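Hey, weird one. I pasted the Phosphate/phosphite/phosphonate ABC transporter substrate-binding protein sequence into the form twice and got a warning about non-standard characters only the second time. First submission, copied straight from the form history:
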Amino acid sequence: MRTTYSRALTRRSGALRTAAVGAALAALTLTGCSAAAGDAEGKPAQDTEAAQDPSSLVLALVPSQDQDGLVDTAAPLTDYLTEELGIEVTGVVSKDYQAAVEAMGAGQAQIGFLPSLQLWQANDMYGAETVLQTERNGNITYPAQFMTNNPDKYCEDTPVERDGKLFCNGADAMAGPAGLDSIEKMQGAKVAVLGPGSPAGYIYPMLALQEAGFNTDTDIQQVPVTANDAAVLAVYNGDAEVGFSFWDARDIVAKDTPDVGQKVVVFAMTEEIPNDGVALSSDLSPELKQRITDALEEFSNTPDGSAILESIYSITKLAPANPDSLDVVARAAEALGLQ
């Protein structure tokens, strides 16, 4: 049964839906297959539910950073699930956020690590169940950040250093909202922007700009990027003056660009966004859903598992989901016309 959410995004545009379906089918390969035919072999009726579960599972990974090597990074997780469930689990990187949702709806994936908007959409459109949400350093919400290579323009005060990274306008409090008055200076700026499905890389920063009186189609120069680390690097390399990302995406690229925290300054943060999480396909039996949920939560509670999740998505723990918390994301998307 679907969780009761606001229906704000039910009537999404046909063009967006069609494009996303095509992307999903191109990005993911169906590796699960139904075993429901077992009844024809004379199996007892009580085995029917278990027989309907697939003989293999696909875990859809959405790149929050450069997707190269993401499947290999996630291999310990998929190996663990394979062993715990007794079912082969394969990790596949989807083209983008929306493709992962459509892949779940098309039977191309059964487990999805999805941002908050896509968790809502996967449930609303396809009955997928949000079973876990992530914790990062004990927090179940996070702000989107505005970052710049031109602090003289955007900082009303002297940047302060925290954990080797610079912040200004109160953004060092590491909680949103902060510094949003400064975004009024973005008129005409080149801005690194993720796709419309990204809460931190698009939805919440764009909403903040709209509320500040911007026409986001004409008042800024959008520089499209594919992932959060790409947004950081666009600012770092001077391809954009401002970039949007989740807090604090600078950490993703710090290994290769150790001075990123000094050259890319966070000057504002949006209101808090519900954390991403795990959705399971409606095609799975309640028993298998529970086994997957338990296995993932147990994995996140081990030192090795926590380290692996940290390397994939900066996750420190997986905790039971609060699906109602996703309503705020649906309302933000509605305000931006992402139906």
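That's the output from the first submission. The warning seems to come from a hidden character in my clipboard, not from the data itself. The domain at 142-274 is CATH 3.40.190.10 (D-Maltodextrin-Binding Protein; domain 2).
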